[in-house]
Design brief:
7% strand, two-stranded antiparallel sheet, 147 residues
Length: 147
Amino acid sequence: MLAHLTKPIVLNRLIGKAIDLILVLFLASAPQFHPAFYPAAPMAAFLYILVCDGLKGGRSLGKRVVGLRVINTTTGKPATFKDSVVRNSTVAIPVLFFMVPIVGWLLWFLIGIPILAIEIYLMTRLEQHARLGDTMADTQVSEAEES
């Protein structure tokens, strides 16, 4: 891992991810309010959660709000879309459940919530604060540099 990166406060990571997930849940649940949003809104939610950390400077909307960014530990550069897809696949797959009519919410609670719980557990317990997605993508979350 890159030694010069500062370790972000775990609470800021949780808040940043919560902001992203609120956006994702809003998009994914839109068909519940009007069927015209199916399947475009859940697909947009899925795509956002996959690529969000590859946005400009390795910063999703949530990370931008709390002042964090994702860095590729091999290159030392902000995360790319590929890095984002790999690191967020563990979180994005449960979003697909929202596309399943009727039982989607049940699948989310039975499978999605435990996956998120494991990710949070790893992030809070490992020395580098790396969740499974970070390990898979060789990424690390750090405080964003002031611009």
